[in-house]
Amino acid sequence: MYISKLSLRNFRNFRNETLDFTKGVNTIIGENGSGKTNLFHAIRILIDESMPRVTRFYESDFNRSIGDWIGHWIVIQMEFSELDSSDEAQSIAMHKVGESDEIDSTKGTYSVFFRPRIDFRRSLFSLSEDEQKSKDDLENLLSSISLNDYETVFNGRGNTDFSEDDNYKKFVGDFDSIVFPDPDEEQTDVYGIKMYGISIPNEFACTFAKALRDVEADLRSYRDNPLLNLLRDKEKNIEIDKKTEIEKQVEDLNTNISELDEVKGVSSGITQSVKEAVGETYAPNVNIKSELPSEMEKLLQSLKLWVGDPDEEGHEGRLWELSLGGANMIYLSLKLLEFERVKRQDKIANFILIEEPEAHIHTHIQKTLFQNLKQQNTQIFISTHSTHISSVSQISSMNILGRGKQIAEVYNPSNKLTKKEKTRLERYLDASRTNLLFAKGVILVEGDAEQILLPVLVKNVLGVSLDEIGISLINIGSTGFTNVAKLFHSDRVRRNCSILTDNDISIVQLPEDSSEDSEYEKGCRNSELSGIDRKEKLDVFCKKNIWITPFYAKHTFEVDFLITNNSHEILNTIKKEYKQKANIKRIQKLIENEDVAIAGKEVLRLAEKFGKGWFAIMVSENVNNITGIPEYILNAIAFACPNISNDTFRSIARYRLSSLIKHTFEGDENDYTQLLKELNDFETNSKALEFYKEKMLEDVLSKLIKLL
Torsion angle, CA of 118/123/129/135, rounded to 10 degrees? Predict the structure, then answer.
């Protein structure tokens, strides 16, 4: 038995989302604030017996995007698969859809509804039956309800997914059309039935290891201390004679300490001091006694962990002397052992929830920990924003949480992919590439030159890094764009992905008859034909997918970079690498030639001579604020991250003007100091940016804003 699906409606930052889970280890990845903690809380409400059974929801628990929460429902639904034949498991078995008398013994559901009480739902139904109903009537009725008029109901056996809008409108209500169902005719196969005589969470073994911030404090906790829970379990097995003997020894020790002359002397001194202060009549009797606990359970509470680093054999110290990562590993290990030894006993299903295990843990340990987290007959959920953990996760058991406006967006990266496609993607996604799963947008490139130079280009020209605007730059190497880009799709990861590649149009005029080609022209023609074929296939692949767009260099990255008025950057690179002035002059003449056939041939020769990746590193050292960004790259940036904020744009505008004060184009007579002052004087970002676009019409930032 395992959790196969979780649906959430109007709960915190989940407006209407469904997550699919598999047996074994499931990974939930997402950036900070994407809803990982909220998701775990929703799961625990339904399966964790340590959670309060009288679950209260508050106004803040409603998703903010619905506007006014009054009248709406919070619905958390869990679907289970592979139910066994036990009475407890079969109590939640679903009615088959359309055949309410039949039970599907292999699937079950358990749900919690936070909804208005039945008298208020009756009032909503009565209003919807009124032919003269109006929005004002609905608002008047809704204004009379408070949280005290809501109820929390746990039901089993429902088979309707309330995260789907049509179902929500039909079975909860359509607030726009003022249509509400009759609560006295609720269908049990839709809403499920109330669970009488059985507590479903009590039938599960569930351990939750929260994100660790203060391990020492957690291990001091009386209720949640996993060490104490393990010791409590062992305390039952201590022989009565041994227990009595130890308790007697502690009592004797207390007596001996209390009878010490030094202790008695302090006690007498306190008594005398009090009597002198308030007199014999009102002075209380004072004594000092040792109170070491003599009950076995309390004695076990006094046991503490002593630990040592593996590099310091023989040394042991208190927990706080260990590194944070080491302490976190010990805590997590205790939670797993607690689950195995204490909680997992005669239960119908076993669950472990681990929140962000990567906190303070070395990357190698993160990977090893994840790969070893395989418990027999136990379903494990791990939330993470670690690329190292996600790199060893299977995308078939992964859900991605993204941050939308007031809502979480859930992506299933393996949805509708073949087994072969999933396997290949999992082999491809190592730690350096899985950051594409966390990004707001992605740019795919196929060469080292683009991977090296593009981030420097963006940082030095715009003053922000690709990371700051939420873009992951991924070098696919020889993997092939289509194999990776298929992740980005309406059925899978709904994020924009730009593909940067070369069109490879020949830089020289080719003869009409290919038989007349020289050896050099033959190479150019073959590259051009390959480029045409690549473009046709890529355009077809991307045509019906709104999340992917290819962007092409007219020739190649190096040539297009050069002809974007960047000969100066190339020449500065050459001057550092060549010693003979004659060579520098010869190369300069070729690079500055206006004929792309000449200049382009030379820059490609240089890239070949030094190696494309190394040449890109050399050129990157000479990129500055007036370096040109090729148009196709600027278009790719705009597509990959369409939601750059005006705050960020204004920050870029300040950087552009500040840097142009120090270093500008030859012959440029603009007063950038004055422009910066005027820009800063605007109270709103929108007005400041309109001013910038007007005054800096041909600037790279103005072009980027226009594209967006």
Answer: -130
Amino acid residing at 305? L
- Same domain, yes or no, for 653 and 635? no
Assess whether 485 and 587 both reside in one domain.
yes
Task: Write the DSSP string, 173-234.
Answer: -BTTTTB---GGG--HHHH-EE--S--GGGGEEEEEEPPPS-HHHHHH-TTT-HHHHHHHHH
**Could you say which DSSP state residue 343 is in?**
I
Joined together, the tokens standing for residue 675 give 């422009």
Q: How confident is the model at residue 308 (pLDDT cuts 50, 70, 90)?
A: low
Using one digit for the tens of pLDDT, what is the confidence trace for 163-182?
999 999 999 999 999 999 99
The number of folded domains in the chain is 4
In terms of domains, do 444 and 489 share one? Answer: yes
Instruction: Enter the tokens of residue 563.
Output: 């002809």
Using CA atoms, how far residue 422 sits from 434, 442, 443, 446, 698, in Å, is 14, 19, 21, 21, 45
**289-to-356, 449, 626, 696 alpha-carbon distances in Å:** 46, 77, 80, 82
Under 8 Å CB-to-CB from 226, ≥6 apart: which residues?
331, 334, 335, 337, 338
Residue 273 sits in the same domain as residue 153: no
CB atoms within 10 A of CB 446: 20
Q: Which two tokens stand for residue 646?
A: 């005006």
The pTM assigned to this predicted structure is 0.81
Which residue reads 């070369």 in tokens?
502
**141 — phi, psi (to 5°)?**
-65, -45
Structural domain span for residue 653: 644-708
Q: Which of 643, 669, 689 represents a domain boundary (last residue)?
A: 643
* Residue 381 belongs to some domain of the structure: no
Digit-coded pLDDT (tens) for 415-473: 999 999 998 888 888 766 788 888 899 999 988 999 999 999 999 999 999 999 999 99
Sequence-ordered list of residues with C-beta below 8 angstroms from that of 91, at least 6 positions apart, any chain: 108, 156, 195, 198, 200
- Write the pLDDT tens digit of every residue in 566-609: 999 999 999 998 989 999 999 999 999 999 999 999 999 999 99
Buried/exposed code over 204-217 (b: 16+ C-beta within 10 A; e: otherwise): bbbbbbebbeebee
Beta-bridge partner residues of 657: none
Name the DSSP letter for residue 394.
-
Tokens coding 656: 């552009």
Q: Which two tokens stand for residue 386?
A: 């670690």
Of the residues 274, 303, 332, the one at which a domain ends: 303
- Mean of the pLDDT values across residues 657-674? 94
pLDDT on residue 540: 96
In a domain, 560, yes or no: yes
